[in-house]
Design goal:
mainly alpha; about 70% helix; 2 helices; about 70 residues
Length: about 70
């Protein structure tokens, strides 16, 4: 998984760059595979960060006695 020193925004920006390169289709097979692997790692990192934030929001909303507006 991506190093924790990278922010969510940095990881998302890099993921967009990776996807853009893959969509252009001008990479060699080996480079495409490496980009795909990097993209999957970035995606996993972003999903984890979002899940952690959702959990914290749910706790805060729960402590305030409000109904949680999303499924966890």
């Amino acid at each position: 998984m991506e190093a924790p020193s990278r922010s969510f925004e940095q990881a998302l920006e890099r993921l967009e760059q990776v996807v853009g390169k893959l969509e252009r289709g001008d990479c060699r097979l080996e480079e495409s595979l490496a980009l795909f692997q990097e993209g999957m790692e970035l995606l996993a990192y972003c999903r984890k960060v979002l899940a952690d934030v959702e959990g914290k929001i749910a706790v805060l909303i729960g402590e305030a006695g409000e109904k949680v507006p999303f499924d966890l």
